[in-house]
């Protein structure tokens, strides 16, 4: 049986129309990859298969400071209890060797008074190391061994107190605690500033105590392949900022916008708006400085992936002057507004400067058209609201209109008349 021929010609069918339609370039979706630096500044890096674990024990103090609080408190409690038990056993052995545990022994010949069991030896150990001194138990001059144990316990107790208290102090005064009040904008923006395409972020400090000698560094992290075929999974490229070119440090008194000019030396030079969304790059921002109150160097970090970079946006101003005082509205810290920005790369913009001029002209025309539409809409609304009253006024004005009167003046010859209204 022959196939039934369609009434619609093949060239007007869906396959024919689809084949003749112009196809737009298809960009593959960016593969989701792990961030190198999280938004809170923590490094997303796992260390595996470390064979030389003993290196961490060579720097015990730093290891204790880097531990989490729950592990630090467990180690703190375990160390003190273990030292008390160890010296309690020493005091019990001294009393046992001297015969103080014998109930028939006279009180004057004891090494330590009222130490008659391991429990009393443990209580005396706590009194010696913590220097409580309740007064019920005391050492006598009968045993030189007891005096030696007393000296050893005091020295060991002082060492444990110094290490543990220093560890807790360093954990409470860590520099990353100060970094919690150093904030970054949620998104980065790319817009035109001073006729150049720029990458911009906003940073701020919530505290009134300043960061002395604050510096900002930008790095682009991406996976690259060398001409020799070597794959570099984390290739860090330094990015120059305007602040670094002008001076060595920032005066972070109020929120600042850090600007990076996308020039020939920038890793973003060849990226357009569409290519940026499909790329797998990550821009890392590092803010360093010295805390004014403590003198400790602090560092705050964050990163921006391609989805967090807004092309054609600009940060809104948040610093205003109110009654002679500069006021900062942090509710608008990350707010942006759309601006006219070419969608091409910075390389194309340098090769064809007319693209920027055309974009700005179109933006100006669209702005003027929007203003005209807005004014016409306001005019129409005002006319609609006052339509009834204006009609009555028009009728009244027409009734009171003065009729035209013609005046004829004779000329010199008296034949021609001129009509004057």
UniProtKB/TrEMBL annotation:
Q: Which Gene Ontology terms describe the biological processes this protein takes part in? A: nervous system development; potassium ion import across plasma membrane; regulation of monoatomic ion transmembrane transport
What stretch or stretches form a coiled coil here?
Answer: none
* Superkingdom as given in the UniProt entry: Eukaryota
| Main localisation | membrane
Residues crossing the lipid bilayer are 71-94, 146-169
Every copy of the Potassium channel inwardly rectifying transmembrane domain together lies at 37-174
Q: Where is this site: Role in the control of polyamine-mediated channel gating and in the blocking by intracellular magnesium?
A: 161
Matches recorded under PANTHER family: ATP-SENSITIVE INWARD RECTIFIER POTASSIUM CHANNEL 8, INWARD RECTIFIER POTASSIUM CHANNEL
Q: What is this protein called?
A: Potassium inwardly rectifying channel subfamily J member 8
Source species, please? Dicentrarchus labrax (European seabass)
What's the source species' lineage?
A: Eukaryota, Metazoa, Chordata, Craniata, Vertebrata
């Amino acid at each position: 049986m022959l196939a039934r021929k369609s009434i619609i010609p093949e060239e007007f069918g869906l396959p024919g129309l689809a084949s003749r339609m112009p196809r737009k370039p298809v960009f593959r979706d960016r593969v989701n990859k792990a961030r190198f630096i999280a938004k809170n500044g923590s490094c997303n890096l796992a260390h595996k298969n470390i064979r030389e674990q003993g290196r961490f024990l060579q720097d015990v103090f730093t290891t204790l400071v880097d531990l989490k609080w729950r592990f630090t408190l467990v180690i703190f409690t375990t160390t003190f209890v273990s030292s008390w038990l160890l010296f309690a056993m020493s005091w019990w052995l001294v009393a046992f060797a001297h015969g103080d545990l014998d109930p028939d022994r006279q009180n004057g010949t004891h090494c330590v008074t009222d130490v008659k069991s391991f429990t009393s030896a443990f209580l005396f150990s706590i009194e010696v190391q913590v220097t409580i001194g309740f007064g019920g138990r005391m050492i006598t001059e009968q045993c030189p061994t007891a005096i030696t144990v007393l000296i050893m316990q005091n020295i060991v107790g002082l060492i444990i107190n110094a290490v543990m208290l220093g560890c807790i102090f360093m954990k409470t005064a860590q520099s990353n605690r100060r970094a919690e009040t150093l904030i970054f904008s949620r998104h980065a923006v790319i817009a035109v500033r001073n006729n150049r395409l720029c990458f911009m972020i906003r940073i701020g400090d919530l505290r009134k105590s300043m960061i002395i000698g604050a510096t900002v560094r930008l790095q682009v992290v991406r996976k690259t392949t060398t001409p020799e075929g070597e794959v570099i999974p984390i290739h860090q490229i330094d990015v120059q900022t305007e602040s670094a070119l002008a001076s060595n440090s920032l005066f972070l008194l109020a929120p600042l916008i850090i600007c990076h000019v996308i020039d020939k030396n920038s890793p973003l030079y060849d990226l357009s708006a569409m290519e940026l969304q499909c790329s797998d790059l990550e821009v890392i921002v590092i803010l360093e400085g010295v805390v004014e109150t403590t003198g400790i160097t602090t560092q705050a970090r964050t990163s921006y992936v391609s989805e967090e970079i807004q092309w054609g946006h600009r940060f809104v101003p948040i610093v205003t002057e109110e009654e002679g005082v500069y006021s900062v509205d942090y509710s608008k810290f990350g707010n942006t507004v759309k601006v006219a920005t070419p969608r091409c790369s910075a390389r194309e913009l340098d090769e064809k400067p007319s693209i920027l001029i055309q974009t700005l002209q179109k933006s100006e025309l669209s702005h003027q058209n929007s203003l005209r539409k807005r004014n016409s809409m306001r005019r129409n609304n005002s006319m609609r609201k006052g339509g009834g009253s204006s009609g009555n006024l028009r009728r009244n004005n027409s009734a009171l209109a003065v009729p035209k009167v013609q005046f004829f003046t004779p000329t010199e010859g008296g034949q021609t008349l001129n009509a004057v209204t």
